[in-house]
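Tutorial sheet, problem 5. The two components below are modelled jointly, 593 residues in total.
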Amino acid sequence: MTIAETQTALSATGLAARRVVNWGVVADHAILIAGSALMIVPVVIAFLTSTWDPVTIHREGLQYLPGGHFLDTYGMVIFHGTGFTGEVNGMTMMVNSLILGFGFSVGKIVISMMAAYAIVYFRFPFATISFWAIFMTLLLPLEVRILPSYEIVQEMGLTNTYTGLILPLIASATGTFFFRQFFKSVPDELVEAARIDGAGPVKFFIDILIPLSRTMIAAIFIIMFVYGWNQYLWPTLITTDEHYFTLVRGIKQILQVWIGSQIPDYNEAMALAILAMLPPVVVVIVFQSWFVKGLTESDK
Amino acid sequence: MKRVVFGHSWLPYFFLLPQLAIVIVFFYWPAGEAVRSSFYLEDPFGFGSSFVGLDNYANALGASEYQRVARFTVVFTFAVTFLSLAIALLLAVKADSVLRGARTYRTLLMWVYAIAPPAAGMLGILLFDQHVGPLTHVAEFFGWDLRLGVNYYDTAVAMVVVSVWKQIPVNFIFFLSGLQGIPRAVREAALIDCKSGLRRFFTVTFPLLAPTGFFLLIINITYALFDTFGVFDLMTKNEPANNPVSLVYKVYLDGFRGNDLGGSSAQSVILMLLVLVLTVVQFRMIERRVHYT
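Model answer (structure tokens):
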């Protein structure tokens, strides 16, 4: 489509003699195309470079055309132990990333929906204090309490487990806040109607509120999946066993090998980085409208 | 609060329990632990600890290294916030004004959101590489001998470039949605009243976008402080000593590499206070935002 835009812009210029060219519009497109290029080009260069062999890259620099080593490089990175970690291949790391992404987003959605339901639809003692106890967590990101968090998880013997990887990341109220806002916008008449029909709180939650929240769940799932997949600091600390490495965690490992080597395997490093980017990028592009909706509405 | 609510003795607790349990174990306990150990001096070999009052804070704040890192963090945060907001605003205004291809541009400009900061850092290392990096060659063309990971300022510039690149999409999405929220009637009225596009932008569009801008300002400061960890960890290439690092990265360095539990915790608490101030500011902004619209 960018090419199409360029063509429209160009044909508009070509017709200057007959039609009045709106230079403002041409300039707008030029700026947008430059901006898009700024976003795309670095990743494309990384991808193209990953399809060449390391010696060529080392000798000639980064490559701007596709090379013939796509299958070799990616096959190596995905299925073989390669130089980065010795035993663990891209496939294992991909599976771990998926476990982290899904585990985090599903866990977060289930837990925060339940909590938001209790907060919005029930009146009970300690409601206010529970509410504040949960929402205080919005204040402090994991990064500022990283050392004690690590020590506590270590004491619990949860290092190198999926539980230790996922649970501490769930300890923030972003999802709860989001669902609370949404539940508050659900009309009260629904509860009344459900009550008249004899539905209890559990039935109301499962049969009415959850189906009603489908779009919201989808939107927050996408945001949380990308967030979970892209986690770096926590997985770096908590997984020392290579069998629990995620793709994003693996990037650090590539660098370690890179620093020490004579001819760095630029191609494999780039291939792994591309693999680490691909799933969240695809998810965000495919589910774009949900994602944008979730992102821009979560702050209201 | 809902007008109609359920009354049930134990059910709400059942629904709340998982979230509360996780929050207490993985949030309040570590946060409390950070505050507690910031007042203690821990023996690096694990032979107990002694209460030292505010010494850890005094040592942290008094150290010239800490002040240097703090100064860099302020400059870095300002540069990243300003540049990514400015570029994103320009792109959003253009994407909002073009009639053809608006959706395509939106996709092309927002997908980088999904890239993890360390992956962006990896791209940065490649593009600024000493031997093969095209951006190093460009700098060379202008007579700038750019050395990533060797020269302090060169590394800082590369980090700002990568962090800005990574943050443009978020700002773009919010600005675009803010722009699309401006009512058609207001736009048309502005179009009739004011012929100059630039003046129209600064007198009508910009004030209407200000609430989004305030909100994004906080988001960006938080991003520059915390979410750039991956960029720092990659781009210092295991040699943080002579490369620029942020305050958050220093907490990690002192705690995990330096084994200075008390000092690291004191720095954590300082950061907690900083985030607290930011959040209070944010809430006030949101109040004002509601007032605007």
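Marking note: Chain B touches chain A through 98 residues (CB under 8 Å). Full credit if you identified this.
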